[in-house]
Write the structure tokens for this entry.
Amino acid sequence: MASIMLESAHSPRYANEEGDYIILVCKFAHLSEELEFGAYSKDTEAHGRDIYNRAKAEEFGPVEPYMAPPTVNEPPNVLA
């Protein structure tokens, strides 16, 4: 298998409270467009661990803090 070559990355943000998962916008050599990539500290793939470690070291800029998704309130029961 060919190695995955990262050309650039930006906009890192934590994807969970534990801080072991970072989402970045990445441009890989084998793709024509940038895409969001989830880098995980315990990834089974070497490129995933490498990108995570580089992001954690702020090579791609400061990592934005984790923001929990908004809570969805249930609509009021209009039949009550």
Remarks:
- The mean pLDDT is 92.
- Residues 17 and 66 are 6 Å apart (CA to CA).
- Helices lie at 46-56.
- The first strand starts at residue 6 and ends at 14.
